[in-house]
Amino acid sequence: MKHDFPTNDRVRLELDEDGVARVTMIRAEKRNALDMAMFDALLAAGHALFELSGLRCVVLAGEGKAFCAGLDLSVMQALHGEDAPRLPERTHGNANLFQQAALQWRKLPVPVIAAIHGACMGGGLQIAGGADMRVVSPDARLSVLELKWGIVPDMGHFALWRGHVREDVLRDLTYRHVEFSGSEAVDLGFATIADADPLARAMAMARDIASKSPHAVRAAKALFNRTTGAALDEVLLAESLEQHGLLGSRNQIEAVESQMAGRPPRFVDP
């Protein structure tokens, strides 16, 4: 796989031969705080991934001592200026640019795994919320931090955590911006699994996903995205339509034949 994502000082995009992309926030000296340059780089990385053929899974991480410490105060100041973006404007489909930085991971056609260590707060936690799964270090520090600054979480917080975190718990942690650990995050529903080396665990999970039929994986993610909150009849029909498209396809036949032959599968990418 090759990408056209330019080298910059905020985000690094790396690809491996298994079809796994690793997106790393690299503003380590600021604990990967989200300034406008970071938002721009994250959106550019997401756009590059949308256009990338052969992509099978994505791992999202932060370099240095933290995943992401949240919003840089320079962004808060910029939102008060004359040239500040109008937040109600839908500049990226159903989202504004800040929401897209979190939602684009959910919108990608392949699974995304966030590897969380150190601080993961405010906007950083919302970005992690856009991933399909989250692997967290037990001693990581997380917080819904926005009310501390007199604002609300507005990067998809009220949509992305539905079904993961019990509503009264989410309300409590939002209202009081209480800090909690990675181990607690698993129990609360903010994280999928705890591991002392979240990046290594996330990469192993990503390579496992990448070894499956890419058409089936994409169909499963599409179903998860389309059926959240949908009526029962709509969910059942969506399942049937996706299955109808997979049965008898080249990759579906290869999945069966490789299992029967006891050999690694040779899948073709969408």
Structure explained in plain terms:
This protein is α/β, with parallel strands linked by helices and 270 residues long. The protein has 2 domains: 200 residues, 2-enoyl-CoA Hydratase, Chain A, domain 1 (Alpha-Beta Complex); 48 residues, Lyase 2-enoyl-coa Hydratase, Chain  A, domain 2. Helices cover 42% and strands 13% of the residues. The strands form 2 sheets. Strands 1-2-3-4-6-9 form a 6-stranded mixed sheet, with helices on both faces. A 3-stranded mixed sheet has the order 5-7-8. Helix 1 packs parallel to helix 3, helix 3 runs parallel beside helix 4 and helix 9 runs antiparallel to helix 10. The longest helix is centred in the first third of the chain and has 15 residues. The radius of gyration is 19 Å and the shape is globular. The relative contact order is 0.12. The mean pLDDT is 95.
How would you summarize what this structure contains?
This protein has 270 residues and is α/β, with parallel strands linked by helices. Helices cover 42% and strands 13% of the residues. It has a six-stranded mixed beta sheet with strand order 1-2-3-4-6-9, sandwiched between helices. Strands 5-7-8 form a three-stranded mixed beta sheet.
Biggest beta-sheet profile: 6 strands, mixed
What percentage of the residues does DSSP assign to strands (E)?
5-15%
- The CATH architecture classification of the largest domain is Alpha-Beta Complex
Unreliable sequence segments: none
Helix content: 40-55%
Q: What gross morphology would you assign?
A: globular
Structural class label: alpha/beta
How far apart are the first and last residues' alpha carbons, in Å? 13 Å
Number of domains: 2
Number of helices: 11
> Averaged pLDDT, please?
95
Write the CATH fold name of the largest domain: 2-enoyl-CoA Hydratase, Chain A, domain 1
> What's the alpha carbon Rg, rounded to whole Å?
19 Å
Order of helices and strands: EEHEHHEEHEEHHEHEHHHH
Based on DSSP secondary structure assignment, what is the total number of beta strands?
A: 9
CATH superfamily of the largest domain: 2-enoyl-CoA Hydratase, Chain A, domain 1
- CATH level 1 class label of the largest domain: Alpha Beta
Strand order of the largest sheet: 1-2-3-4-6-9
